[in-house]
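REQUEST ID: PR-0412
SUBMITTED BY: lab tech R.K.
PRIORITY: routine
TASK: structure prediction, single protein chain
INPUT:
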Amino acid sequence: MKTLYADLPLSEGQASIVDYDLAALKESNIPYLRRKIGIVFQDFKLLPDRSIHENMLFVLKATGWTDKREMEAKIDEVLEKVDLKTFSTKMPHQLSGGEQQRVAIARALLNDPELILADEPTGNLDPQTSVEIMEVLRKINANGKTIIMATHDYALIMKFPSKTLKCEKATLFEVVQRTV
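STATUS: complete
OUTPUT:
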Protein backbone atom coordinates (compact mmCIF):
# COMPACT_ATOMS: atom_id res chain seq x y z
CA MET A 1 0.00 0.00 0.00
CA LYS A 2 2.78 2.43 0.87
CA THR A 3 4.22 2.01 -2.60
CA LEU A 4 0.84 2.81 -4.15
CA TYR A 5 0.69 6.19 -2.40
CA ALA A 6 4.43 6.77 -2.88
CA ASP A 7 5.49 6.54 0.74
CA LEU A 8 7.92 3.79 -0.32
CA PRO A 9 9.50 3.89 -3.78
CA LEU A 10 8.84 1.11 -6.28
CA SER A 11 11.98 -1.03 -5.98
CA GLU A 12 11.62 -3.06 -9.18
CA GLY A 13 9.24 -3.70 -12.03
CA GLN A 14 6.55 -1.39 -13.33
CA ALA A 15 3.38 -0.01 -11.78
CA SER A 16 1.04 2.86 -12.39
CA ILE A 17 -1.81 4.28 -10.39
CA VAL A 18 -4.26 7.10 -11.20
CA ASP A 19 -2.23 7.96 -14.33
CA TYR A 20 1.11 8.14 -12.49
CA ASP A 21 4.00 5.85 -13.41
CA LEU A 22 5.37 4.80 -10.02
CA ALA A 23 8.71 3.73 -11.50
CA ALA A 24 9.33 7.22 -12.92
CA LEU A 25 7.53 9.26 -10.24
CA LYS A 26 9.41 12.40 -9.21
CA GLU A 27 9.27 13.46 -5.57
CA SER A 28 7.79 16.81 -6.61
CA ASN A 29 4.76 14.98 -8.10
CA ILE A 30 3.94 12.93 -4.98
CA PRO A 31 1.54 15.56 -3.52
CA TYR A 32 -0.39 15.62 -6.81
CA LEU A 33 -0.61 11.82 -6.88
CA ARG A 34 -1.93 11.82 -3.31
CA ARG A 35 -4.63 14.36 -4.16
CA LYS A 36 -6.09 11.78 -6.54
CA ILE A 37 -6.07 9.05 -3.88
CA GLY A 38 -8.02 8.88 -0.63
CA ILE A 39 -6.21 6.94 2.09
CA VAL A 40 -7.84 5.21 5.07
CA PHE A 41 -5.36 4.00 7.68
CA GLN A 42 -5.78 1.25 10.28
CA ASP A 43 -5.01 3.65 13.11
CA PHE A 44 -7.21 6.51 11.81
CA LYS A 45 -4.42 9.17 11.81
CA LEU A 46 -6.73 11.89 13.11
CA LEU A 47 -5.10 14.97 14.63
CA PRO A 48 -5.89 14.57 18.35
CA ASP A 49 -5.73 18.28 19.20
CA ARG A 50 -8.39 19.30 16.65
CA SER A 51 -12.11 18.72 16.34
CA ILE A 52 -13.46 16.54 13.55
CA HIS A 53 -14.34 19.70 11.60
CA GLU A 54 -10.83 21.09 12.13
CA ASN A 55 -9.31 17.76 10.99
CA MET A 56 -11.29 18.05 7.75
CA LEU A 57 -10.50 21.74 7.30
CA PHE A 58 -6.79 21.02 7.74
CA VAL A 59 -6.84 18.56 4.81
CA LEU A 60 -8.78 20.90 2.56
CA LYS A 61 -6.46 23.84 3.24
CA ALA A 62 -3.39 21.62 2.78
CA THR A 63 -4.66 20.53 -0.63
CA GLY A 64 -5.32 24.04 -1.89
CA TRP A 65 -8.94 24.80 -1.04
CA THR A 66 -9.56 28.47 -0.24
CA ASP A 67 -13.30 29.18 -0.52
CA LYS A 68 -14.74 28.94 2.99
CA ARG A 69 -18.29 28.17 1.83
CA GLU A 70 -17.10 25.40 -0.50
CA MET A 71 -14.99 23.91 2.30
CA GLU A 72 -17.92 23.93 4.75
CA ALA A 73 -20.21 22.34 2.16
CA LYS A 74 -17.65 19.63 1.37
CA ILE A 75 -17.10 18.82 5.05
CA ASP A 76 -20.86 18.50 5.60
CA GLU A 77 -21.16 16.33 2.47
CA VAL A 78 -18.49 13.80 3.43
CA LEU A 79 -19.56 13.58 7.08
CA GLU A 80 -23.13 12.93 5.92
CA LYS A 81 -21.89 10.10 3.67
CA VAL A 82 -20.57 8.30 6.78
CA ASP A 83 -23.56 9.25 8.99
CA LEU A 84 -21.56 11.60 11.25
CA LYS A 85 -22.76 15.05 10.19
CA THR A 86 -23.62 15.98 13.79
CA PHE A 87 -20.16 14.97 15.08
CA SER A 88 -18.11 17.83 13.59
CA THR A 89 -17.53 19.64 16.91
CA LYS A 90 -16.38 16.51 18.76
CA MET A 91 -12.73 15.73 19.42
CA PRO A 92 -11.31 12.40 18.18
CA HIS A 93 -10.96 11.04 21.74
CA GLN A 94 -14.71 11.53 22.24
CA LEU A 95 -15.49 9.05 19.46
CA SER A 96 -15.50 5.27 19.43
CA GLY A 97 -13.02 3.43 17.21
CA GLY A 98 -15.69 2.81 14.60
CA GLU A 99 -16.70 6.48 14.60
CA GLN A 100 -13.06 7.52 14.24
CA GLN A 101 -12.67 5.17 11.29
CA ARG A 102 -15.81 6.63 9.67
CA VAL A 103 -14.26 10.09 10.09
CA ALA A 104 -11.08 8.76 8.45
CA ILE A 105 -13.19 7.48 5.54
CA ALA A 106 -14.90 10.87 5.26
CA ARG A 107 -11.48 12.55 5.24
CA ALA A 108 -10.40 10.24 2.41
CA LEU A 109 -13.40 11.41 0.37
CA LEU A 110 -12.71 15.15 0.72
CA ASN A 111 -10.95 15.68 -2.61
CA ASP A 112 -13.22 13.36 -4.65
CA PRO A 113 -10.42 10.86 -5.19
CA GLU A 114 -10.26 8.59 -8.20
CA LEU A 115 -9.25 5.75 -5.89
CA ILE A 116 -9.46 4.95 -2.19
CA LEU A 117 -6.75 2.88 -0.52
CA ALA A 118 -7.91 1.29 2.73
CA ASP A 119 -5.01 -0.21 4.66
CA GLU A 120 -6.44 -2.66 7.23
CA PRO A 121 -9.40 -0.33 7.92
CA THR A 122 -10.95 -2.83 10.34
CA GLY A 123 -7.73 -3.97 12.00
CA ASN A 124 -8.32 -2.07 15.26
CA LEU A 125 -12.04 -2.72 15.47
CA ASP A 126 -14.29 -5.35 17.01
CA PRO A 127 -16.16 -7.72 14.63
CA GLN A 128 -19.50 -5.85 14.71
CA THR A 129 -17.86 -2.48 14.11
CA SER A 130 -15.79 -4.04 11.31
CA VAL A 131 -19.00 -5.06 9.57
CA GLU A 132 -20.36 -1.51 9.95
CA ILE A 133 -17.20 -0.05 8.41
CA MET A 134 -17.38 -2.55 5.56
CA GLU A 135 -20.99 -1.49 4.92
CA VAL A 136 -19.85 2.14 4.68
CA LEU A 137 -17.10 1.16 2.23
CA ARG A 138 -19.51 -1.00 0.22
CA LYS A 139 -21.93 1.94 -0.07
CA ILE A 140 -19.12 4.23 -1.27
CA ASN A 141 -18.03 1.59 -3.79
CA ALA A 142 -21.61 1.16 -5.01
CA ASN A 143 -21.69 4.91 -5.68
CA GLY A 144 -18.80 4.58 -8.11
CA LYS A 145 -15.58 4.83 -6.10
CA THR A 146 -12.90 2.20 -6.61
CA ILE A 147 -11.50 0.89 -3.32
CA ILE A 148 -8.39 -1.19 -2.84
CA MET A 149 -8.37 -2.67 0.64
CA ALA A 150 -5.66 -4.64 2.39
CA THR A 151 -6.78 -7.05 5.11
CA HIS A 152 -5.76 -10.23 6.88
CA ASP A 153 -9.33 -10.90 7.97
CA TYR A 154 -10.50 -13.86 5.87
CA ALA A 155 -13.90 -13.90 7.57
CA LEU A 156 -14.47 -10.35 6.39
CA ILE A 157 -13.43 -11.28 2.86
CA MET A 158 -15.96 -14.12 2.89
CA LYS A 159 -18.70 -11.89 4.31
CA PHE A 160 -18.08 -9.17 1.68
CA PRO A 161 -17.03 -11.03 -1.46
CA SER A 162 -15.48 -9.04 -4.29
CA LYS A 163 -12.42 -9.25 -6.48
CA THR A 164 -9.68 -10.57 -4.20
CA LEU A 165 -5.95 -10.53 -4.78
CA LYS A 166 -3.57 -12.41 -2.53
CA CYS A 167 0.09 -11.68 -2.02
CA GLU A 168 2.06 -14.79 -1.19
CA LYS A 169 5.82 -15.33 -1.50
CA ALA A 170 6.22 -12.00 -3.32
CA THR A 171 3.63 -12.97 -5.94
CA LEU A 172 0.24 -11.33 -6.45
CA PHE A 173 -2.59 -13.46 -7.80
CA GLU A 174 -6.37 -13.42 -7.95
CA VAL A 175 -8.31 -15.68 -5.60
CA VAL A 176 -11.53 -17.05 -7.02
CA GLN A 177 -14.20 -17.07 -4.34
CA ARG A 178 -16.68 -19.89 -4.50
CA THR A 179 -20.20 -19.45 -3.28
CA VAL A 180 -21.79 -22.39 -1.50
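NOTES: The helical segments are 30-35, 52-62, 68-81, 97-109, 127-142, 154-159.
REVIEWED BY: pending
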